[in-house]
């Protein structure tokens, strides 16, 4: 049971690991480019384990920004995880304290999305499944950082081999997987417009916090729906 | 180990701690609240789509015509098929545009 759950987690996380791998390598290469040693880059991937914020971190470190400001920016980019862990509470309440500590550490975007989806589909969210899914992304993330840091120059231009398009499409797929939820369209529309406007007027990485907040505030302001019969369409995804 | 490098290690550890705080903070907050008000619940329910949209929309608008085209094709694929197929078809699309058309 435990072993089959773990294996199911490994299988589920595998395509995400593939999609994230180029970014781990890219981070390693860019980190070395910004004055990190190979060990620093690997250390950051192993401890922070949050791709976008790691990119922001090395970028700001490379331009000699005050350390407290670097940490604050990392915190801001990762602020969405507060919402993830709040939203996940109902699915992982049965984990032991130690399991929760590990689960929170592994709580990256796809881990959140898949756990939430699994819980909503009524499938059991066991620690074995969660750990399998998380580790198959976490461990290669570190290895890819190492590879990227060593062979940084070889990656050269990720656009030439089309790697840059993978992450937006991956996130698009995640957004679409939530399309059966209440008020999906207005929320997505408002967040889309707000994030594009924030990107234009404020700049990255604030488009994430500002855009997300716009959609969330809209959801909170709309009149509460009738106690809906929760019918969650079963995803066709394997 | 020189002082400057030690500073970098402190910085990475501080960033890791800040990140970890965001990852358990929401859980602690939400389990302290005994009853979740309906508005908070709707707000939490909106979180994933709202956050993930901010990673998609700007890429679509500012990523260039090739990326936008690949995302459109992937969107159509995504109405029927898995994320992995979206990635594959989107990637093929962008490579064809870049190497055959542009």
The secondary-structure class of chain A comes to mainly alpha
Q: Give the termini distance of chain A in whole angstroms.
A: 19 Å
Report the end-to-end length of chain B measured between terminal Cα atoms.
49 Å
Mean residue pLDDT of chain A: 85
Shape of chain A: globular
Radius of gyration of chain A (Å):
19 Å
- What summary fits the major beta sheet of chain A? none
- Number of helical runs of chain A? 12
> How many structural domains in the coordinates of chain A?
2
**Low-confidence parts of chain A lasting 5 or more residues at pLDDT below 50?**
227-238
Description:
- The complex is a heterodimer of chains A (238) and B (102).
- By secondary structure, chain A is mostly helical.
- Chain A contains twelve helices and no strands.
- Chain A has helices spanning 2-33, 38-47, 51-62, 67-77, 80-92, 97-105, 109-120, 127-150, 152-155, 166-177, 184-201, 206-221.
- In chain A, α1 runs parallel beside α8 (127-150) and α5 packs parallel to α7.
- The two termini of chain A are 19 Å apart.
- Chain B has helices at residues 3-32, 38-62, 65-78, 83-101.
- Chain B is flat, with a radius of gyration of 21 Å.
- In chain B, 86% of the residues lie in helices and 0% in strands.
- Chain B folds into two domains: 1-34, no CATH class; 41-102, no CATH class.
- At the A-B interface, α2, α3, α4, α5 and α6 of A face α1, α2, α3 and α4 of B.
Please sum up the structure shown.
Chain B: This is Branched-chain amino acid transport. The complex is a heterodimer of chains A (238) and B (102). Helices cover 73% and strands 0% of the residues of chain A.
